[in-house]
From TrEMBL:
Location(s) in or outside the cell: Cell membrane
Keyword Oxidoreductase listed: no
Membrane protein topology class: Single-pass membrane protein
Family: Belongs to the YajC family.
Name by which UniProt lists this protein: Sec translocon accessory complex subunit YajC
Lineage, highest ranks first: Bacteria, Pseudomonadati, Bacteroidota, Flavobacteriia, Flavobacteriales
InterPro entries: Preprotein_translocase_YajC
Alphabetical list of Pfam families matching this protein: YajC
Keywords: Cell membrane, Membrane, Protein transport, Translocation, Transmembrane, Transmembrane helix, Transport
Predominant subcellular localization, coarse grouping: membrane
Domain of life: Bacteria
Amino acid sequence: MDQLTQFAPIILMFVVVYFFMIRPQMKRAKQEKNFAAELKKGDRIVTKSGMHGKIVDFSEKNNSVVIETGAGKITFDRSSLSMEMSRKLNEPAKLEKEKK
């Protein structure tokens, strides 16, 4: 029993790290994967580097998307799309559609 009380703080620390660090990261990664899978042509998106555009085409071979911007068409990996910024960009459009 004495050994268990010695290791209790260490075990507790691993439990806290799991619930406050590892589990939320796994949940976020799953959400980003679902976001990338649900994209469709015509969606307005923002990349992690700040490039704004509209999806024109997909390349399943390279796991990338072709984005139309003011400067032309650019190809980005799906992993470079920002889920948070894209959702913020599309929220006003959804609210406007709901009002009509």
